[in-house]
């Protein structure tokens, strides 16, 4: 097992888990008070499936464009997890950063990672 492949697949799974979990929770928030009980498990299921898919795809070899997409998604996932950990552990970060800004940081990290991978391959 290649460590880079495994870490990339873990990052993809984390990014998809956070995105799907948040999307389902927000979508159901107006309808039910238990929206997180549906959103978190559905995000976990889709995140695990995405991580397994990313691992298999990266291990078997994919096109350069698809590999860049997977690796940049992993970078965005790790950026979101890092900001959420800091948000949870450091009170000053919690006061300065909202959950909406965490998504913006993850999207910016995804874009920067994609551009860096494109530049590196040229």
From TrEMBL:
DUF8147 domain: residues covered: 2-119
Protein name as annotated: DUF8147 domain-containing protein
State the UniProt keywords alphabetically: Membrane, Transmembrane, Transmembrane helix
Give the stretches traversing the membrane. Answer: 33-58, 70-90, 102-119
Going by the entry's taxonomy, the superkingdom of the source organism is recorded as Archaea
Q: Which residues form the signal peptide?
A: none
Q: Which InterPro entries match?
A: DUF8147
